[in-house]
């Protein structure tokens, strides 16, 4: 046997043995799979959206490869260079892994390999990150959360090139980088890792992903079930003021999957954080599906993960932007990368809902894996159908028993009411029981302020939460709900707030002309009950659907009630007189009031106070039943805001003093339009002549709306029994009404 | 001859005589022509955009015909029903006339005929309009201006059905409606009719249009040359405060064509009013072209009418919205109907510029006449080319000798500087000599406030100009220019302002990397000379082009100078300390200062004061050379505005007290971007390390900009001789610079 032949034989043996190992633990197996990759390669060039995405990702990755690898010594907050660079590194590495598998071009594998070894060389001696603000500092980033992001993505990159590395190389990486990394974010930071919180979800997924690649069962157990003895203090708090540990609560990925999602797939922190948390949930769910299908993670809790995708998509306006419930940054939408993941996975591993394809079409990119291929093929084959958002009522709480969020929609999102009667929503929750926001198509009519933060913009508090998030954005007065005696709900105390939730009274969207949701809050102000009923009504006498709002208050004490409307737009007209102050002063001292300037102060001149504004080229009128003694305040955000961290947005506020039981009844009526191009002003006046409370006692509240043509609409609410079968009878003004169920709606001329 | 035969013969004779009359004065001949209509009919069904427009207009007109004709007794301002109805009547009648000619369906002719006779029956006894606010009240509308609109459109409708009417019918309409109507808006309202003003242009065109249809030479003379003896008072004023009569000034259409347009086609009132005035200019111009081609109206003053269309299109941002110079409502754009007319006529009767076709494509509709057909055929045949807007310098004044407006653009409208050194602009002019606004693509970076009016929105002052237009929008402090001693330019006196204009010092856009405009104002503040030089510079060390601003002031007295920057967006950061007041107070008592709240007050901490903001997802930094004794004020519009007529927009203002000669030098630097979807913050910091005035005397001003990498850019301006051929030599810091021409630009590390 010649030397040449011996070498050839050795090469064959090596090839066979690699193939043998690959059989034992085939890679890629985490997100990409061998069969998936084969299918992708076979279809390359014949699936336009997939091919487009490959091209765009190639351009992006090739440009980074050309720039060279940089793994700088960590020093910055999220706005700074080192943060951005390390973030880009893991994002690009994950994509390079996909490209390597799809194109089989070695440069991608080499890029990942070189980067991983640079990290390996650095990590061994890397101290904790120098920025000290976080309750759980990372090493590459200022918080463990971002380190976990890194590991979730790098696990995928590592899996993609696993077979290209020698076992010695793998051992080096695993012993010096991946295992210490996983230990650091888990065992060394249980206050981060061992909670039910979106941070922990990232941590759990990170440990779990690398566990699956390394086939490390101990780490996988830690990922799924948490750390048994974490030694955490029951009083410790995170940076957002949230409790670290709740007695008796389980930890780990499965606990995180169990607890924050309601059976409907609503995530208790709200859509902005659900969007963020969906990625680790789904990507680790998919990894488990691929590597440990017997654990049935996707099917866990009655398919809650895939239901969560549907719930999240339904928590967006007509432009796909998520409602900014709790801490939510406006503008975040289903165009974001984690929603590409969510939509692709939900389509492919769910029931292949063709409506999801139309969202993917708008996103105009897919995942570079089997699910992305499947979506792109569905679109290519013309299967896409419009994603139709209807009215929906989503429960909150692990068992769906902690209130919820209702979204009433009329038509093709012509009017959308978002009504929040949920639980506190963990540390990102706002003190805004029974608050709401209103949208016409994608435009805000009455806003939820959202968060006070410029995410990742270093100049604004390092891109982190600003002081004003606590002093303004979370406060009760910042929301379209009731403030009593200038206090926050639950006195702004997180522990108290976390013990309670509002209760659904009833939800009924069966009649599309009159859709109603009603809920009760008993704990926000002890001794005071808030019962709010909101309806979206379409009446022939009105051009557009309108919103009816009945807030019934029963209190055992006399209080001051403030009831604001955060209208979006420019003041047009009102039917009351008011005085304009010469200088602007804050409305109060604390609880958010210190941030409101008073721009006008008046009193009602009739029982039906009206106020109109123009926003986004459309007209809106508030008609509200007022008392002569009410105060009407024009307010504007911006007082005590020296850093200009808040938007200078306006509100009209009704203030009622020295009152126990009372009622606030309002209609928000969208009408007409204005175009600066045609300069045509259409239907700029309200169609409501009078709004009147015609009955109000313990059992029933009756409201009549008379339009300008004399047509009367009567809405009667049964206050104490909402059961659908219950028969009711009530006499109002000499006329007797009989009906069955929670409410009665009647009209006449 | 039987009776039957006699009748037949009579019918033939009548037909012949109609035909004879039609030969003598063929109709339609005003806008539509017989040959044009033939061509349209022949091409129906084969020119997509034209056919689409016919279909849409048909739907619109058919819907109105189905509603029936209403000619209510006039009573409302522009926001009200009677105003809107009469306006819709003439718009629809004009379109019905086109449809009659194109489709030959009699229902359209009947609709117009019936409507005209309803007006005829009403007009005979119609008093002057009951609303008394106008200096020239109409009959159908509250001002003669709108009555003139009516006649301009109705003349076209009448022309279109002229041949369908008996001569007796025509006589009735002409004697009872059209001639009295024309007399009313001219002879009975010379203060409206006999001026050089956009109002008069409408009046002249109205009288001229109906004159051409009726073949009435006396009226035509009145249209072209005005009323000889108008008996007007030389001190009388209109509602905007404009002088009615200027001694020795000619009147009539030709005078209006002569005077307000500069030879470059710039209209002295600004683009918002040019857009409005273009319609009567062009439509009557076209009517004259058709009926009296020998008068060569289109060719008048070296094709100024068609040049005007080009000038107007160039006075728009990347979204097609007109710069709101003087009184201009933001949002008005080349999508408005009068610009469809302008673009179609300019294409067909001009040089068939294929770039105009791309604008017509965006407008997505055409005129239903020969010019519209021509445009639609050009688009169908693939002739459209992108409309490229480059830098342009437009003179103002009848002979182009009264200053002007320069627009410096870099790239594909990546940065657009609008610099105004024009004449006062008649009664719609603002007191803003040497002011500017800045755009990145279609987004405002530093704004011109525009007007204070909600055009046609009845709730806001009847849709007319608001008090705040005078107290705020027209004032000097409302603009990005210099205010001295809290006074307005020319003390806000219209007569004085109208006598003066700024002077161009030089304009040079030859080098696309350094484009410069410079102008001098000697009269705004007697005894003080303002010399402002603005450059748009693209340097390799910067991601985007930036703007350099050198305002040199020479005064024979010590003054307070205020220099504001009306930035659009949210405050990010600054390198100076400031105090935030506990209560907001107005900055001053009058001249616009009473509308500004002070939100912060500080002083520079370095010679290069920096201030950054975030607007429309993009970052901007102002770097300005300041003195230790300067005050820096954060202001916000909204004080003394009880009706909420003003937008709550912000500014940073530099205040320099007790100073005669001085210099304000600034750079506005766009950089980076932020997306709430990706949450990526890119290039959010300024690239400028220092901005320094390195030389300043009577003859030269030198400014150096040092970037963060150490590269220095030096800009030297020759202050007293801008001739291109002049040789200059200057020593700065031991180094000698030699150059030829108005400025020198050099760079080194």
Write up this protein.
The structure is a homodimer of 749-residue chains. Mean pLDDT of chain A is 95; it is low at 15-24. In chain A, the strands form six sheets. An eight-stranded antiparallel beta sheet of chain A has the order 7-8-9-10-19-16-15-12, with no helix packed on it. Chain A has a six-stranded antiparallel beta sheet with strand order 6-11-18-17-14-13, with no helix packed on it. Chain A has 749 residues and is of the alpha+beta class. Among the domains of chain A are: 69-231, Chondroitin AC/alginate lyase (Glycosyltransferase, Alpha/alpha barrel); 392-748, Beta-galactosidase, Chain A, domain 5 (Distorted Sandwich). In chain A, a hairpin with a 2-residue loop joins β4 (435-440) and β5. The interface between A and B is large, with 53 and 53 residues.
Detail the topology: elements first, then pairings.
The structure is a homodimer.
Chain A: H1 3-24, H2 34-43, H3 48-67, H4 81-103, H5 106-123, H6 144-161, H7 167-185, H8 190-193, H9 198-214, H10 217-225, H11 253-258, H12 271-291, H13 300-314, H14 337-349, H15 354-363, H16 370-380, E1 392-395, E2 404-410, E3 415-421, E4 435-440, E5 443-446, H17 467-473, E6 483-484, H18 494-499, E7 503-508, E8 514-521, E9 528-537, E10 546-555, E11 559-565, E12 570-574, E13 577-579, E14 596-603, E15 608-615, E16 618-625, E17 631-637, E18 650-659, E19 662-671, E20 673-674, E21 681-682, E22 688-696, E23 700-707, E24 712-718, E25 727-732, E26 735-740, E27 743-748
Antiparallel strand pairs in A: 1-2, 2-3, 3-4, 4-5, 6-11, 7-8, 8-9, 9-10, 10-19, 11-18, 12-15, 13-14, 14-17, 15-16, 16-19, 17-18, 20-21, 22-23, 23-24, 24-27, 25-26
Helix pairs in contact in A: 3-4, 4-5, 4-6, 5-6, 5-7, 6-7, 6-9, 7-9, 9-10, 9-12, 12-13, 12-14, 13-14, 14-15, 14-16, 15-16
């Amino acid at each position: 046997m010649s030397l040449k032949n011996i070498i050839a034989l050795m090469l064959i043996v090596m090839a066979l043995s690699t193939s043998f190992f690959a059989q034992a633990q085939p890679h890629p197996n985490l997100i990409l799979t061998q069969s998936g990759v084969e299918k992708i390669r076979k279809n390359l060039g014949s699936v336009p959206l997939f091919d487009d995405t490959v091209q765009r990702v190639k351009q992006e990755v090739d440009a980074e490869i050309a720039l060279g690898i940089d793994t700088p010594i960590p020093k910055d907050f999220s706005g700074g260079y080192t943060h951005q660079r390390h973030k880009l590194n893991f994002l690009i590495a994950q994509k390079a892994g996909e490209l390597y598998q799809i194109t089989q071009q070695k440069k991608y594998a080499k890029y990942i390999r070189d980067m991983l070894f640079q990290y390996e060389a650095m990590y061994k001696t890397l101290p904790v990150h120098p920025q000290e603000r976080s309750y759980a500092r990372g090493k590459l980033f200022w918080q463990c959360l971002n380190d976990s992001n890194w590991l979730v993505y790098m696990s995928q990159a590592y899996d993609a090139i696993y077979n290209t590395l020698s076992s010695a190389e793998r051992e080096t990486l695993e012993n010096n980088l991946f295992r210490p990394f996983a230990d650091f974010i888990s065992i060394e930071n249980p206050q981060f890792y061992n909670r039910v919180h979106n941070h922990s979800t990232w941590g759990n997924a990170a440990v779990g992903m690398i566990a699956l690649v390394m086939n490390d069962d101990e780490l996988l157990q830690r990922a799924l079930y948490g750390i048994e003895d974490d030694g955490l203090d029951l009083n410790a708090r995170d940076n957002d003021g949230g409790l670290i540990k709740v007695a008796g609560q389980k930890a780990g990925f499965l606990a995180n999957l169990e607890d924050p999602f309601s059976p409907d797939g609503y995530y208790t922190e709200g859509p902005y954080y659900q969007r963020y948390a969906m990625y680790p949930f789904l990507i680790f769910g998919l990894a488990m599906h691929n590597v440990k299908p017997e654990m049935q993670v996707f099917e866990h809790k009655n398919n809650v993960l895939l239901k969560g995708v549907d719930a999240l998509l339904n928590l967006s306006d007509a432009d796909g932007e998520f409602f900014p419930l709790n801490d939510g940054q406006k503008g975040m939408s289903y165009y974001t990368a984690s929603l590409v993941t969510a939509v692709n996975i939900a389509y492919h591993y769910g029931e292949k809902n063709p409506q999801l394809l139309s969202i993917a079409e708008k996103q105009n990119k897919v995942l570079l894996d089997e699910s992305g291929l499947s979506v792109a093929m569905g679109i290519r084959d013309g299967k896409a159908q419009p994603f139709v958002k209807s009215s929906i009522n989503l429960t909150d709480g692990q068992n769906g028993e902690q209130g919820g969020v209702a979204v009433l929609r009329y038509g093709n999102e012509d009017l959308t009411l978002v009504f929040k009667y949920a639980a506190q929503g963990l540390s990102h929750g706002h003190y805004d029981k029974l608050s709401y926001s209103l949208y016409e198509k994608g435009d805000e009519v009455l806003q939820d302020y959202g968060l006070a933060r410029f995410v990742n913009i270093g100049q604004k508090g390092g891109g982190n939460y600003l002081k004003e998030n606590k002093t303004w954005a979370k406060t009760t007065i910042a929301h379209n709900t009731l403030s009593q005696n200038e206090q926050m709900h639950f006195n702004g105390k997180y522990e108290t707030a976390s013990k309670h939730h509002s209760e659904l009274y009833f939800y009924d969207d069966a009649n599309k002309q009159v859709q109603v949701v009603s809920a009760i809050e008993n704990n926000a102000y002890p001794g005071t009950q808030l019962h709010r009923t909101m309806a979206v009504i379409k009446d022939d006498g009105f051009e557009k659907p309108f919103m009816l709002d009945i807030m019934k208050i029963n209190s055992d004490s006399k209080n001051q009630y403030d009831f604001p409307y955060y209208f979006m737009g420019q003041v047009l007209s009102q039917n009351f007189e008011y005085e304009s102050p010469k200088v602007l002063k804050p409305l109060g001292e604390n609880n958010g009031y210190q941030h409101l300037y008073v721009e006008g102060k008046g009193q009602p001149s009739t029982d039906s106070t009206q106020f109109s504004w123009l926003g986004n080229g459309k007209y809106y009128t508030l008609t509200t039943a007022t008392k002569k003694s009410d105060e009407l305040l024009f307010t504007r955000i911006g007082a005590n805001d020296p850093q200009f961290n808040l938007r200078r947005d306006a509100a009209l506020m009704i203030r009622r003093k020295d009152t126990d039981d009372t009622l606030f009844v309002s209609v928000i009526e969208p009408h007409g339009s204005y175009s600066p191009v045609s300069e045509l002003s259409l239907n700029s006046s309200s169609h409501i002549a009078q709004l009147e409370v015609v009955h109000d006692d313990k059992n029933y509240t009756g409201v009549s709306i008379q339009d300008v043509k004399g047509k009367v609409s009567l809405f009667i609410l049964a206050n104490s029994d909402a059961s659908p079968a219950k028969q009711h009878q009530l006499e109002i003004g000499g006329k007797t009404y009989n009906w069955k169920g929670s409410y009665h709606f009647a009209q006449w001329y």
